[in-house]
Amino acid sequence: xxxxxxxxxxxxxxxxxxxxIPIHPFGNLDISFxxxxxxxxxxxxxxxxxxxxNVSEGKLVPGRYxxxxxxxxxxxxxxxxxxxxxxxxxxxxFIFTLFMLIAIMNLFGLIPYTFTPTTHIVITFGLSLxxxxxxxxxxxxxxxxxxxxxxxxxxxxxxxxxFLVIIEIVSHFNKALSLGLRLAANITAxxxxxxxxxxxxxxxxxxxxxxxxxxAFPILIGLFITVxxxxxxxxxxxxxxxxxxxxxxxxxxxH
Length: 255
Fold this sequence. Notes:
Blueprint: H1 2-12, E1 19-21, E2 33-34, H2 35-55, H3 64-84, H4 92-108, H5 121-143, H6 161-207, H7 210-214, H8 216-253
Antiparallel strand pairs: 1-2
Helix pairs in contact: 2-3, 2-4, 3-4, 3-8, 4-8, 5-6, 5-8, 6-8
């Protein structure tokens, strides 16, 4: 039983927050610089470096980095154009930056001995809550008191009004939770699966005999999972930004 508990703990070690620079300005208030903070800074610095050294010059024949960023740029641009048309172009820099940062943080987590900030709900929920508050503020600025009409569906019987309003309000506020929870849950699940397969393969390799030869099977599965996780990292960044675009569009047009 203790062996199983120890093994389970080892799988979750990759999600442990480590204080690199402890900061406690007011008693129990902890704003320490952690490994999560470090990799957020690294992701932002990496994006800034790649964009400014390979893309901002706009080479006629793009290199590898410029080609990747241009593909991401075109993808996000198409997302904004398809869902918000010309009205959404002013939000494009924010959506593009959000996509690149989330994608880089997700992909960095696949490198051994690194940390994935997006596996922590406090990070993803902080992002989703900030976006939700921004969308509500945008809706109030654009539509004033009429913004609250979205909680009462058109054509609904007045007798059902109170129930529908409650349901719509709960559904509306769930956006802040679901947006961040979806990202954290998918990235965490993939990392756990990869850790379990890696541990299983290592135990087979160290067992010796025919079991060592059979370790090739979980290793191949691990390689497949790695490729799959790379795809999931990009897909989850895309889904997060797509839902953000949809929420912003709702604040503009009151769907």
